[in-house]
Specification:
Length: 46
């Protein structure tokens, strides 16, 4: 019997109304999620 090692995950997020799927290695998922987090808006850009 063969054992498969799954090292990938799919992260689903939204870009406006469109769903976006991002495939990455499991160990990189926190980095990808951090990059997708909304950046805080400065007072000058409001």
């Amino acid at each position: 019997m063969c054992a498969y090692r799954h090292d990938g995950v799919v992260i689903e997020c939204r870009d406006g109304d469109r769903p976006v799927l991002v495939a990455t290695r499991r160990r990189d998922a926190p980095l990808v999620l951090g990059a997708l987090e909304d950046a805080p808006m400065s007072a000058a850009s409001r």
